[in-house]
Amino acid sequence: MTSASSASTSCLKECPGDFAYSPPRNFWEFAPVGELAITSCNLAAFTSAIDRTRRIFSQFSFSAPNPVLKLEPPIERAPSIGWQLNLSGSPIICGQEVFCRETEEILAKALDTYYVVKRVGDGQSVLQTSSASSSFLSSFSSAIAPLQLSSGLFFASQFPIKHHEITFRRFTNLVSEDKLATKGVLRVPVEIPLIGGEVGKVVFFVTHLQAQKEHKKTRQEQLGSLLAWMQEDQETNPGTLLFLAGDLNVSPVEDDGQPSTEKQELRWFFSQFEDFYSGDHDATGRRGAGTSCRFLENDLKNSGREEWELQEATGSFYNMYEFGADREIQGCKYDYTLLYTGDRNESGLKSHTEIRRFLNGLSDHLPLTTVVNLPASLKRAV
User: Fold this and answer.
1) Digitized pLDDT (tens) for each residue of the chain, 382 residues in all
2) Is-contact 12 185, C-beta < 8 A?
3) Ramachandran class of 189: left when φ > 0, alpha when ψ lies in -120 to 50, beta otherwise
4) Cβ atoms 374, 34 nearer than 8 A
5) Which strands, in side-by-side order, build the sheet including 92-98?
6) Alpha-carbon gap, residue 248 to 171, rounded angstroms
């Protein structure tokens, strides 16, 4: 595969209105900005039914335990996560694996100065999202119903969202346990007040792709359909900045520490984007010469770790069973914030990217924050 999938073969299906939107409870007008901070974070917040089922099965499994089971239940973690996100200094938050509705509500309440998009894909049925195994699922629909999940996508912005233009498209090719979720892609246009008085439009695509390293073909199809959508969007809205953020489940190093060639095989996809993290770091996750951490000191302080001798993380995933809550797997980074550039590959925008420490022990992923200097002029919001 060398290019995006055509519309006729797309594995994305539009789900009109399948989300909930809420404005900030505490509103104030934010000053114009010259840079934009975007944080992508996988919060590992499953429903209580899924959490209980996983814990029961883990007692009878001989395989390695799921690191998520080392975490406190999502509802207990949610207040701390909301607090830390408020302190993150990021006006744009792109969340994944926020499946638990109670956790969503706690986060939305904590982020009281943010416009929030939640319950994305909540109206879809497991039976709707399945094809080949639909007869099997139909036979056990009453047992499966409590286990079905939304997309898990969660978006928050301190800048106004053009909520009438929000779109969600679900993946139709999910396999294995991912079929229980309505994973897909959320498109959110945001109005950004710029220095000089102009209000520009920036569009965010948020996603969480098929999990498990053996399902590369499924992810390839998903990325092809996603790229085709973003190419079409750019043609319709020339000059608009299009960001892609989320957990792509693609990494140079897998969660077992083994190297992977998948990202190299997906060059046809990544060559269409600017990966700001690669501009700051080498292939092992080490920060390049001439750049320094911007957030580490405050993250350690705000999370009560100011006495710890922690360096910048060299990966965004860690296995607490093997390494503890402060030992990431070097080079394992499933989390991305990319800017669509097409064949240009580079935008020329200055940036800073950092894997953050403020969710240590609150998820099995660490957040990725990208700060991008905005151009003097953007396509006007209309």
Assistant:
1) 445 444 458 999 999 999 999 999 887 777 888 999 999 999 999 887 766 666 655 555 555 555 555 788 899 999 999 999 999 999 999 999 999 999 999 999 999 999 999 999 988 765 554 444 444 444 444 444 556 789 999 999 999 999 999 999 999 999 998 998 999 999 999 999 988 788 889 999 999 999 999 999 999 999 999 999 999 999 999 989 999 999 999 999 998 889 999 999 999 999 999 999 998 998 888 998 888 999 999 998 888 877 667 788 999 998 665 545 557 888 999 999 999 999 886 788 999 999 999 998 899 899 999 999 998 777 655 4
2) yes
3) beta
4) yes
5) 20-22, 115-118, 154-157, 92-98, 35-45, 368-373, 351-355
6) 13
Query: Contact 262/216 with Cβ under 8 angstroms?
Result: yes
- Other beta carbons less than 10 A from residue 110's beta carbon: 18
Tokens of 62: 């001989």
In the numeric block, the tokens 């499953």 are attached to 46
pTM: 0.90
Among candidate residues 147, 151, 137, the one with its CA nearest the CA of residue 94: 151
First-to-last C-alpha distance (Å) of the chain = 37
With beta carbons less than 8 A apart as the criterion, state whether 18 and 122 touch.
Answer: yes
CA distance 151 to 168: 10
> SS3 string of 83-113?
HHHHHCCCCEEEEEEECCHHHHHHHHHHCCC
**Cβ-based neighbour number of residue 369 at 10 Å:** 24
Q: Which amino acid is at 101?
A: R
* DSSP annotation of 212: S
Tell me the residue length of the chain: 382
Per-state percent for the chain, helix, strand, coil, to nearest 5: 30, 25, 45
* Fold (topology level) of 7-373: Deoxyribonuclease I; Chain A (3.60.10)
Candidates 96, 111, 103; CA nearest to 153 is 96
The answer to whether 298 touches 250, Cβ cutoff 8 Å, is: no
Token reading at 203: 């569009």
DSSP state, 343? G
Q: How far apart are CA 42 and CA 51, in angstroms?
A: 16
3-class SS of residue 184: strand
Domain-wise residue ranges, the chain: 7-373
Least Cα distance to 37 among 85, 107, 89 occurs for: 89
Query: One-letter amino acid identity for 70?
Result: K
